[in-house]
Amino acid sequence: MNPIHLFNRRTLGLLALSLAAFSPNLHAQDKPPLKIVVGFPPGGSADILARMVADALREDFGTIVVDNKPGAGGRIALNAVKAAKPDGQTVIVLPSGPMVLFPHVYKKLDYDAVKDFTPVSQIARFQFGVVSGPASNAKNVADMVAKAKSDPGNASYGTPGAGTLPHFMGVLMEQSAGISLNHVPFQGGAPANNALLGGHIGYKFDVVSETAEMHRAGKVRIIAVTGSQRDPQVPEVPTLKESGINMDATAWFAMYGPAGMKGDALTRLEKSMMKIARDPVMKDKMLKLGYEPIGSNSADLAAAQKADLNRWEKPIKATGVQLD
């Protein structure tokens, strides 16, 4: 054998071994990118948080794609994740509504909120704002109640979709304040914002971060928040209880994967999400958006989901709302 050829082959072999030794992630780079599915359009609160999470996860996962699949209050996105392989390459970031409200309002829900998904991590808790737009011009909750009572049924409010948490915030406020409101569902928070600004609806119930900037700019007015404490984004805005409405409601964002995700696929995501919640930069970003960082493990998210499924059952059934 030609010694030059032998030398070249040996050299190439040693080079390959060296690359493998110094590039432990070489094979990992051959994997498809991590896909984070979002059930709402770009620009809404779920999309903003999902992109924040994606940026933070790139250190551990490399390439990440945020895939917006809006419609049906998040159900289109959930069914896409339900059908995905449980290999840890496809997850969803979503608000708690589809996992704790939809099972009570849809008789024929096309997924099982418990059996069809793997809990990964509860990302953050948050509250909602009651927002008055140019069409209503209500300056506070008392103003809103008075206007609704003087013109029953003509006060309209928009939400990111039928059966979502903001939808039931409106229903609960109707019951608590003794008023009648017309619900107008949209495919996400951003379209609802446009309708509010355009004077097509009078009010909006949604995450405070959706309208905090418009509130500060004087384009709309957040007249109350739904939690037990004032929101740091708009500290001048009272809670509903401070405004005379006996109502206190919050929600959360979480990450789920398809059913059957376990072992390294689950553990890797779970640990990364817990690390993100402890990161000072990420925590600061979340707090500025009005989110309380959680970063739970899989078991704690499963427990939180079970508790909220039980908590919302009676109030929703009392409304008589059915969406199919």
Q: Structural class, from secondary structure content? A: alpha/beta
How is the CATH topology of one domain named?
Answer: D-Maltodextrin-Binding Protein, domain 2
Number of helices: 12
C-alpha Rg (nearest Å): 23 Å
Helix content: 40-55%
Task: Give the rounded overall mean pLDDT.
Answer: 88
Task: Tell me the CATH superfamily of one domain.
Answer: Periplasmic binding protein-like II
Q: How many strands?
A: 10
Q: Provide the CATH architecture of one domain.
A: 3-Layer(aba) Sandwich
CATH class of one domain: Alpha Beta
Summarize the structure.
The chain has helices at 3-22, 45-61, 75-82, 97-100, 102-105, 141-150, 165-177, 189-197, 208-216, 263-278, 280-288, 298-319, and strands spanning 34-38, 64-68, 90-95, 117-132, 156-159, 182-185, 203-207, 221-225, 250-258, 292-293. It is α/β, with parallel strands linked by helices.
What does this structure look like?
This protein is an alpha/beta fold. The protein has a domain at 127-225: D-Maltodextrin-Binding Protein, domain 2 (3-Layer(aba) Sandwich), CATH 3.40.190.10. It is built from twelve helices and ten strands. It has helices spanning 3-22, 45-61, 75-82, 97-100, 102-105, 141-150, 165-177, 189-197, 208-216, 263-278, 280-288, 298-319; strands spanning 34-38, 64-68, 90-95, 117-132, 156-159, 182-185, 203-207, 221-225, 250-258, 292-293.
